[in-house]
Amino acid sequence: MSNSENPLLANPEAQPKDHSDLSNRVQTLRSALLMVIAAILLLTGTFFIFLFREVILIRRQSDELSRIVLDYQKTAVPQLQEFKGKLHDFAKTNPNFAPVYSKYFGTNAPEPAPNINKLPNPPSPLREQP
After folding, report:
1. What is the pLDDT of residues 31-53, one digit of tens each?
2. What pTM, to 2 d.p., does this model score?
3. Where exactly are the structural domains of the chain?
């Protein structure tokens, strides 16, 4: 290997003079590496805590939305189906209303009300978080 390929061998003054200087440099590198590892662990732990709190928040929101959807399916959908059925009956008896009904609801008959017994169970109550 030539001196131009390895600049440390080309410049003897740049090389450490004794063993203590080399051990000081290694100790400095070791402490810098330990600080970087500690910073990475701290950042990883902080990120984990952030993600854990987000999961808790998403679970709470999901439970709340499930309750809202279940309540909607049990109360509003049957009322809307009943109203649509009444409109269908009204459109049959009043020919002036038939074009309006067919414009917004088509020619299909009203759908039957959903079976409330087949709806999913409500989610479990919210868990208290520390």
Report:
1. 999 999 999 999 999 999 999 99
2. 0.50
3. 18-118
